[in-house]
């Protein structure tokens, strides 16, 4: 076997362990009984250590060096070498005992978070979250020293290869200066219109689920390689060829669960559309989390809050819930789905206020990683940030600093990818509609085929063949441009352009 084929076979086995971990993490969140938490944490920690051991096998370094001199490799194989090298560099920076400790700490913290969120009990979560943060700081220092990065950039690099806080700071400072005044303008304009009545529930969970499944099918989700379930926090997870999504239901408001399903289906379409020929290799993985979030936000925000989508969906909603009257008309539903308001919950936020939620979390996690703020001060700092950026103060930690699962589950450095994803989504959707003017009319007919075909060809099928900036430039003709996102907001919410 050549050095490259040795590497490919080896990382196929690493991928198999990652797939097993993915299913266990889904099970933890969706169906695992609470009493199994400690045993499951031990199992997950062992698999994490085994995966880490395989990824850092000393032979990998030798194979990488030998394969670099192989002139017979094609572009996909060369890109795979680059991605294997990236994984190897990141994993070898961490000792196995830190990997194990982090795995156990996040398992314990995530389980305690579920109870703490329900009871609005930050004090009860604090010691668990403090241990997760301590280990994240330790991992950040180790990775930073190995890769020549600052602590926060070392964590960000796991989710956004090549991403840097300095670039994000500039983008987010620009948005933070633009969005509050723009939101004021939009809210004032909406206040001058007659207020639309909300569809009246209750909306039984089984009917909401049926609606979600119907929309997933319209989007092109492959039910032979995935499923829909329920969890405390909606997510997309699972394994190669087993891409599972979750949502959560509220019988007084079907839109929240539906938009959650649409969002997670966007993630799932990316996973199901990755290059099959290289599945199990790092080069087949999604390029970055900003691109991953762009796929979910493109579906949820760009496509499924369009007038065309609501025109298609309105009669389906009426049929599902037996609705009738003005509140169920397409125009009224569209106005509700594009209504801007200052709320507490990120996953329910409209696309005008959503970036402010992300900017808040980004600034807080940077301060916490840098040890510039005591973790015990997080609730107060969160509330102050919400007041400054959104003009609202959460009445409880349940709808404040306890609402997200990311920090308890070890996702530090992840949050900025949401807003990077929103900007990327606007740019990709703009390019797709320019390339194929039938995309929006087709959505109005309930046909997502043209849109998904464009995404498959320009994003999904490339996996990690290209770096993020190159992939976006190839797809849209330019690197990330916040102006496209701003223009979209002005066009949709103020009718400009």
From TrEMBL:
Taxonomically, which superkingdom? Bacteria
Query: By what name is this protein known?
Result: Metal-dependent carboxypeptidase
Q: Does the keyword Hydrolase apply?
A: yes
- Annotated binding of Zn(2+), by residue: 263, 267, 293
- Please state the Enzyme Commission number of this protein: 3.4.17.19
Under Gene3D superfamilies, the record lists: 1.10.1370.30
Q: Name one Pfam family in it.
A: Peptidase_M32
Give the main EC class. Answer: hydrolase
Q: Name the coenzymes or cofactors required.
A: Zn(2+)
Classification via PANTHER family: CARBOXYPEPTIDASE 1, METAL-DEPENDENT CARBOXYPEPTIDASE
Q: Which family does it belong to?
A: Belongs to the peptidase M32 family.
Keyword annotations for this protein, in alphabetical order, are: Carboxypeptidase, Hydrolase, Metal-binding, Metalloprotease, Protease, Zinc
Q: What GO MF terms are annotated?
A: metallocarboxypeptidase activity; zinc ion binding
The answer on whether this UniProt entry bears the keyword Hydrolase reads: yes
Active-site residues, record numbering mapped to chain: 264
Tell me the cofactor note: Binds 1 zinc ion per subunit.
GO BP field: proteolysis
Please explain the role this protein plays, according to its UniProt record. Broad specificity carboxypetidase that releases amino acids sequentially from the C-terminus, including neutral, aromatic, polar and basic residues.
What does the record give as the reaction this protein catalyses? Release of a C-terminal amino acid with broad specificity, except for -Pro
